[in-house]
Amino acid sequence: MDTLHAHLEALFDDLELVIGWETGYEPLRPTPAFLRSREDLSRLVWNPLCAPNLSVYLPGILKDAKETGKKIGVCLKGCDSRSLGALVQEGFVERERLYVVGLPCPGTVDPEALAEARKSSAPVTHVSFRDGLLAITSRDGTEEIELERVLARRCRRCRHPNPLHADVILGDPVPPRRTEPSFSDVDAVEAMSLEERRAYWEEELSRCLRCYACRNACPLCVCRDRCLAESRTPKWTTQRDGVRDKFLFHMIHALHLAGRCTECGECERVCPVGIPVALFKEKMARIALELWDYQAGTDPAATPPLQTFDPSETGI
Amino acid sequence: MSEKNERQLRIVGFLCNWCSYGGADTAGVCRFKQPPLLRIIRIPCTGRMDPLFVVKALAQGADGVLVSGCHPKDCHYAVGNFYARRRLELVKRFLPFVGLDPRRFHYTWVSASEGQRWQEVVTEFSAVIQELGPNPGIGADTPMETAGQAASAFA
User: Which residues form a coiled coil (chain B) (predicted)?
Assistant: First the structure.
């Protein structure tokens, strides 16, 4: 973390803004930070609790940024960097206007798993991370918890802990947990019968509040205020609160991410009612992999498969 | 299909204006007998097909969705159906994951002169749908769907 501060400190004059994480209302909840002055840099934090994918802000910030010739600095984990790759591929972000600080990521924490793993429930005053152990300090003393025990689902299947497309990588490379794409959670759903699957999703989606947090946190949901889910003409979803409209909203999100999703898992992380919505997108990513051997965001020069075609394709 | 709950089955057909709509017309002009399940929506090109059309129709209880356009390499707009077949294949593979029966969705290519082939496509797909029976859709009769039930839930 000291290297991160020192590195950005040295570069700060050439940067318009640095996007990173700072401590939120408690040390367990780092929130995105937009740092415009040198003094603010000390607020930056980096640990396995820094879950938000900061590439979600890039299209908007670059659109509104003044052309000062200065770059915008952004801290990205491995999965976040794939989202950046996909945004570059689709022309939503100009890579040359960014200074990307890549942070090899040991994995991020699932807050619910952490709450269960902690013995104390006292407010946390300090968090640190070393050698796979989270040290969590509260007035009851310091507890050490293994990161592996409280890892988020998305991180258990992570293949890209080390950022791609970065200008600089700070920290030692992390060995990936998976070397091959892993879809075991998708497999678990597919092991059910068709009827069971329908019942499973009806049950899960019945909790959906249609708060659209999954959409807002998604780095590739770039329509923002013009989302199909809120359009009145055509009226894809109604104001009724039945499962049918909730389902349609999730289908809009999933189908609009077909062949684009980088599997950062933000949609699932931000869901306030814990619906495994990332599974829809993991299934999409798997189809894209099977049909076109395509992995979004890994090659900034590649064209997303649904924005192109191949006349010689047969069988479909 | 049960005798009691005998609802007329419905297939939604999305046909491209230039080939399959003409093919369906040819079949009609030639008086080829077809099952009466299909309701046709004319689209300018299969490239107009949003995969959401398929998902929404099936989620809301359409018993089948049939998409048909020009044969690949014969698209009126040269490449519309090349884009379409990628999207349609993707949605076909996605449907079973969310609990929708992929057999209820079929996409194919029929040219304007293939009246006979159109008859075969409609007959075969209608037979599949007859076999499968009514589609329950997704989220039908959710307790909160109707105001009366919602009120009783809070009573």
Answer: none
Is residue A272 a part of any domain in this protein? yes
A199, A228, A291 member nearest B89 (Cβ): A291
Beta-carbon separation of A258 and B51 below 8 A: yes
- Measured between CB atoms, which of B72, B86, B145 is closest to A242? B145
Residue where a domain stops, chosen among A150, A175, A209? A150
Residues near A186 by beta carbon (within 8 Å), at least 6 away in sequence:
A279, A282, A283, A286, B97
- Whether A219 maps to a domain, the answer reads yes
**Could you report the per-residue pLDDT of B33-73, keeping only the tens digit for each?**
999 999 999 999 999 999 999 999 999 999 999 999 999 99
Dist. CA A75–CA A96, nearest whole Å:
15
From B127, B117, B121, select the one nearest B30 (Cα to Cα): B117
Domain spans, chain B: 11-154
**Same structural domain, A302 and A194:** yes
Q: What is the CATH number of domain B11-154?
A: 3.40.50
pLDDT per position as a tens digit, B103-133: 999 999 999 999 999 999 999 999 999 999 9
User: Out of A201, A245, A316, whose CB is closest to B89?
Assistant: A316
Which of A134, A150, A166 delimits the end of a domain?
A150
pLDDT in tens, A163-203: 999 999 999 999 999 999 999 999 999 999 999 999 999 99
Domain-embedded: residue A83: no
For residue A85, the SS3 value is: helix
**Residues A232 and A297 occupy one common structural domain:** yes
Q: What is the pLDDT of residues A9-51, one digit of tens each?
A: 999 999 999 999 999 999 999 999 999 999 999 999 999 999 9
* Core vs surface per residue A3-39: b (16+ CB within 10 A) or e: ebbeebeebbeebbbbbbbbbeeebbebebbebeeee
For chain A, what is the domain count?
Answer: 2
**Residues of chain A found within 8 Å of residue B153, distances taken between Cβ atoms:** none
Please check whether residues A133 and A200 belong to one and the same domain: no
Residue A130's domain spans which residues? Answer: 111-150
Consecutive H or E run containing A63: helix A58-64
What span, in angstroms and rounded, lies between the C-alpha atoms of B20 and B108? 9
- Domain membership of residue A25 (yes or no) is no
DSSP B96: G
B chain contacts of residue A258, beta-carbon cutoff 8 Å: 51, 87, 90, 94
